TrEMBL record:
Molecular function via GO: RNA binding
One Gene Ontology cellular component: nucleolus
Region named Disordered: 1-33
Protein localization: Nucleus, Nucleolus
Full protein name: Activator of basal transcription 1
Length: 222
């Protein structure tokens, strides 16, 4: 009985100490349960389109690929080559990027659809073409924006260099034309006299005549 009373007193003293120390109370509070049903923040994935057949645009790409997962952004690079057929009103694209909201979906799309027929409507010109898809590992949409801005700056710089070169050529030809025009005006001026340059034959004849004159004078004044 005495031992039981001592244990009760020790237990009461321990409870009093816990109440006086708030840090111990915090440690005894139950931990928060993790909500398993709460969705995790999904990383986005980008798929690269290496070949875009004629007639395939942003709208068609979204319709064809959104069946496999939700798509956020699409960018298709236009064909800017000088050999492009200007008579065709349809825009021609050379490559593209598709951003899926889930990285796993982007990987699955690139693995399953690469090398398969695009399909769609039978009347569409790209119906029999093949997908050329590649998942870009650790590639973000900001990288694409930086690349586009860099290429734009390079094109603008190249354009400025070509404009400056064209201006230099234009000023050079204008100066040449003005110089030739000035020469023609001088040549056609009637008040201007021209002295012809002495030829080598004339110089030899003058030397011979001078030698004859010297010989003649020497014979006379002997």
């Amino acid at each position: 009985m005495e031992d039981q009373d001592k244990n009760k007193e020790d237990h009461e003293d321990q409870n009093q100490d816990d109440e006086s120390n708030p840090t111990k109370l915090k440690s005894k509070q139950p931990k928060k349960l993790i909500n398993v049903n709460k969705p995790k923040s999904c990383k986005r994935g980008i798929v690269y389109l290496g070949y875009i057949p004629d007639g395939l645009n942003v709208k068609n790409v979204r319709v064809l690929l959104s069946r496999f997962g939700e798509i956020d952004r699409i960018f298709l690079e236009k064909d800017k080559s000088p050999t492009k057929n200007k008579a065709s009103k349809r825009a021609k694209f050379v490559e593209g990027w598709v951003e899926f909201k889930k990285k796993s979906v982007a990987k699955l799309v690139a693995q399953t659809l690469n090398g398969t027929i695009i399909g769609g409507k039978r009347r569409s010109p790209y119906y029999g073409s093949l997908w050329n898809l590649k998942y870009l590992k650790r590639f973000k949409w900001s990288h694409l924006a930086e690349q586009i801005s860099y290429e734009k700056a390079m094109r603008e710089q190249q354009l400025r260099l070509e404009v400056n070169r064209a201006k230099k050529e234009a000023t050079f030809y204008a100066n040449m034309i003005e110089r030739s025009r000035h020469k023609k005006q001088i040549f056609n001026d009637p008040n201007r006299t021209y002295k012809q340059r002495v030829t080598d034959e004339q110089i030899k004849q003058e030397k011979q005549t001078n030698e004859l004159d010297d010989d003649l004078l020497a014979n006379i004044f002997k």
